[in-house]
Design brief:
This protein has nine helices and seven strands; from the N terminus they run ααααβαβαβαβαβαββ. The protein is of the alpha/beta class and 245 residues long.
Length: 245
């Protein structure tokens, strides 16, 4: 359904309900229209509270929720930290009737799993994996996501991801980790469906220039080769697009 330019709360509820039944990917025109009056969305105030545990803009959290609702296949999240993005995605999965959803979080330094980030400038954690699980449980979302602790390229993690998405290609891929989106794309490319929605944070990342340069380089190269289609950069520097194959 077309999204009205001056949306009411009822328009958002109707669009969200229709998203669960749609068969074509959400496109850039719909995304931009959806965000135009997003503050009147009945779920916006709730998602704004998720900012207490997330570096993502509220607009991006709302889009993750919408994308998860509209996704008919699998969802892979790499780098949720303590769960802000996971709540956005998880709420969409729950409201959309459920689908395979995996979240890969290293949460440590070097080989340490679950570790600490006590000196995080905004959202310190004494146990990242535990906090991720607690935040999901607090929202009643723990049963909708399979959490795989470890690095995204650890063989045991890769095996678990491939097993989960066997027969259910990934239609939403969110990455907010160490900037190595090229590594993760190549690792999981066999699982990625054509027209998969892609959400990569740190395309613009003031204060994390090295990460930004890697994400931007990979995205720009893939777009130039015709493998990705760019919808744009949203929030505080999150790139959104789709996989063309």
């Amino acid at each position: 359904m077309a999204f009205p330019q001056s949306a009411t709360p009822e328009d958002y509820l109707a669009f969200d309900a229709a998203a669960v039944r749609r068969r074509k990917p959400i496109d850039r025109v719909e995304i931009d229209a959806y965000l135009k009056s997003i503050e009147v969305h009945p779920y916006y105030a709730k998602m704004a509270t998720v900012k207490d545990i997330s570096m993502l803009h509220v607009d991006v959290l709302m889009l993750l929720r919408l994308f998860a609702r509209a996704t008919r296949g699998g969802i892979l999240e790499i780098g949720p930290y303590i769960g802000g993005s996971s709540i956005g995605i998880g709420s969409g999965v729950r409201d959309g009737g459920g689908r395979p959803y995996a979240s890969v979080e290293h949460g440590g330094v070097e080989e340490e799993i679950g570790g600490t980030y006590r000196d995080h400038p905004f959202y310190p954690s004494s146990n990242i994996i535990d906090d991720l699980k607690k935040n999901l449980a607090a929202e009643g979302l723990g049963s909708f996501v399979s959490i795989f602790p470890g690095k995204s390229d650890t063989p045991s993690v890769v095996e678990k991801v491939f097993e989960l998405f066997r027969g259910s290609p990934i239609e939403l891929l969110f990455i907010d980790a160490d900037g190595a989106v090229d590594r993760d794309m190549e690792l999981y490319r066999p699982l990625i469906a054509k027209n998969c929605l892609l959400v990569f944070d740190d395309y613009t990342a003031p204060g994390a220039e090295e990460k930004e340069q890697r994400v931007r380089r990979v995205v720009d190269e893939e777009v130039a080769r015709g493998r990705l289609e760019s919808y744009g950069v949203y929030g505080w520097g999150t790139w959104i697009g789709r996989y063309r194959g």
